[in-house]
Design goal:
Immunoglobulin-like, 37 strands, six-stranded mixed sheet, about 650 residues, mainly beta, rod-shaped, 3 domains
């Protein structure tokens, strides 16, 4: 698995209460001091990360690529502003009942802010409070209706706590639900003093906000000029070297044999045959066996006496050289097989006994056991799995809210605690498109001829133009973050729970083509070996009791029921859990937050290579460790600002 590149993630950000700031509690002061206190706020676009500690400081996790996002992803229609008085320990104080103001809850339309040329939004009119001292300032951009309803009519302390603990759905720009919800990245605390006693000299709360949703994009593979003509213009096509078994058949030879001796030794009647198959009994004695027309040599894995027409012994004593034989007067000695069988046809027919036939096994042509062939796989569809159903309004961290993750800390989403204590039986309750449900739908729908299940979407065939800004030489020349796939909510679990059933993954559906670029109608796999025809498979494994009821004309369902993987319509599947948020440089153990989805990041996927033909049916288990999942594909996952994170996969 190629090591992942990581890139800082940015979005709307308010300018100064940044993620590095943490409030250090001190001893509480005397009761609040009355006085005019004006508070204002501003927010602007920036490239600060919504990721781990250090993401916004050009560390190894920052790839230098930034993405401004689409108009819908950046749209601002309304801001929910909450200003709440607190003591020096950071505890929110009780709202006053005497008519004085120690906090506000306000819905401000976009017209209530002034946008600068650099994209900064400043509150037009500052808020006046009746007390000096410390205040917490919380902003939610484009709040969802449920959250608006929850805080409407509430006092500032209650509303602040509601926002901090709100778990639900978030708007996703391009969808009908409206614009992206964004909220404080970090806790923002300001102190109003006597110097802030006029509206011309307010204390500024410069708040960093981030989208509470993430984005997954896809960078497609350019068509290869060396591919067959029919595949040169197709995107997402990969060359695959794999071992496909040939027609392993019995050794056959052409012979002249005596049909009738009654006309005299020098005038015997001879016949030319091409269907004599070499066999041997348990003692190693060789025979030539003629199979009746219409019978499969290996059907059922055991020779059936009813399928055998004649048997000739193959010993020196039973063969003779007949000299010149010229049925038509024009064939010379050099043109006639000298392995002429001395036993006539009638005698060879009499040799067919049940005891002899059942003692024989064919001598196979070991020169045709299979070769490493070139095939091509076109990735056509994808399904993202384990997509969280809910997200918090503000980012939660184990034991606290706000701020960025320190080393060893875990992000929390609304279901993190439940997921960390869950077993396979209830994984589906946390996710849309949980991995097990998608896997089962693939296996059912594909084998029943119903096509791909609903979870699958068509892979984009074009990249988004001019999607990346701020590209610098050390990080390579990426020209795009890739085409949009889906918006997703945060998903994080402890290291010991980073398993296939809990982390966000992706399943690709692909179409198989042969070395000439022609679509493969069907492929079979048995005992980890591929076959183009059922006949070829039975030629190799016809003696397997599990396949005893099959013939080369058996249906796909009969083959499936016998334990054969059937690639119906030449379609195969690949699963990857390698959507990493950061690389801990250790392939043996899972790192804290290594496989996680965090808000305000763009996870850009690219399939770097495909090692082999994928699965006809997925056999993953939900509890399978992500580091143990068989890697048919190499998935590169890179992370840039919006932030965009590029992920490249080897399939």
């Amino acid at each position: 698995m190629k090591k992942l590149l990581f890139y800082a993630f940015a979005i709307f950000a308010f300018v100064a209460c940044n993620e590095a700031e943490e409030i250090t509690p001190t001893a509480p002061q005397a009761p609040a001091v009355k006085g005019d206190a004006y508070i204002t706020m501003a927010f602007s676009s920036s490239n600060n990360s919504g990721g781990r500690a250090g993401d916004s400081h050009q560390t190894v996790d920052d790839n230098g690529h930034h993405n401004a996002g689409t108009a819908a992803e950046n749209n601002v229609t309304e801001a929910l502003v909450i200003i709440a008085k607190c003591d020096e320990l950071g505890n929110l104080t009780t709202p006053t009942t005497d008519g004085t103001e120690n906090g506000i809850v306000s819905f401000v339309p976009v017209g209530g802010f002034t946008k600068s040329e650099k994209g900064a939004y400043s509150l037009n009119i500052p808020y006046r409070m009746d007390y000096l001292g410390t205040y917490k300032v919380l902003a939610v951009i484009n709040p969802v209706d449920d959250l608006k309803t929850a805080v409407s009519g509430k006092d500032h302390k209650t509303a602040y706590e509601i926002v901090c603990n709100y778990a639900g759905q978030a708007r996703t720009g391009a969808n009908s639900d409206g614009d992206f919800m964004m909220a404080n990245k970090s806790e923002c605390v300001v102190t109003a003093t006597n110097a802030n006693n006029t509206s011309d000299n307010p204390v500024f709360a410069n708040i960093s906000v981030e989208r509470v949703i993430s984005k997954v994009t896809f960078r497609y593979a350019d068509p290869d000029a060396s591919f067959p003509e029919t595949l040169k213009n197709k995107p997402n096509v990969y060359k695959v070297k794999t071992n496909v078994a040939g027609m392993i058949t019995a050794v056959t030879e052409d012979f002249w044999y005596i049909v009738d001796k009654t006309v005299g030794e020098l005038n015997y009647v001879y016949q030319y045959a091409t269907n004599l198959n070499k066999a041997e009994d348990k003692a190693g004695k060789e025979y030539w066996v003629m199979i009746k027309s219409g019978y499969n040599v290996f059907a059922g894995g055991q020779l059936d006496p009813a399928s055998v027409e004649a048997i000739w012994p193959n010993t020196v004593e039973d063969q003779q050289y007949m000299g010149i034989y010229s049925p038509d007067g024009g064939v010379t000695t050099e043109q006639v097989k000298d392995d002429l069988l001395s036993v006539d046809y009638e005698t060879a027919v009499d040799n067919v006994t049940e005891e002899l036939v059942q003692s024989l096994t064919f001598v196979k042509d070991e020169q045709a056991t299979g070769t490493t062939d070139t095939y091509y796989v076109e990735l056509t569809h994808y399904a993202l799995t384990n997509l969280s159903k809910q997200v918090y309004a503000v980012r939660h961290i184990e034991g606290r809210q706000f701020g960025i993750l320190a080393d060893g800390e875990y992000l929390k989403d609304p279901q993190t605690d439940a997921k960390n204590s869950a077993d396979e039986a209830n994984y589906a309750s946390f996710f849309n498109q949980d991995m097990t449900s998608v896997k089962n739908a693939i296996n059912d729908a594909t084998y029943n001829g119903a096509g791909l299940p609903e979870a699958f979407r068509t892979l984009p065939s074009e990249i988004e133009a001019d999607a990346v800004t701020g590209v610098d030489t050390p990080h390579g020349d990426y020209t795009s973050i890739g085409a949009h796939l889906q918006y997703v909510y945060e998903n994080a679990v402890n290291a010991d729970k980073q398993v296939a059933g809990l982390v966000t993954g992706v399943i690709f559906s692909g179409k198989i083509y042969d070395q000439n670029g022609a679509p493969v109608p069907v492929m079979y796999k048995y005992n980890q070996q591929f076959f183009r025809t059922l006949r070829a498979l039975l030629n190799s494994y016809g003696s397997d009791p599990k396949l005893a009821q099959l013939t080369e004309n058996s249906t796909n369902q009969q083959a499936i029921d016998a334990g054969i993987d059937v690639y119906v319509d030449g379609r195969c599947f690949y699963y990857s859990a390698q959507i990493k948020h950061f690389e801990d440089m250790n392939d043996e153990t899972l790192g804290v937050m290594e496989y996680a989805i965090m808000r305000n990041n763009i996870y850009s996927l690219k399939v770097a290579s495909i090692a082999d033909l994928g699965d006809a049916r997925l056999t993953l288990t939900p509890s399978q460790s992500v580091v143990d999942v068989r890697a048919y594909i190499s998935l590169e996952v890179s992370i840039l600002p919006w932030i965009v994170r590029f992920n490249d996969l080897d399939l």
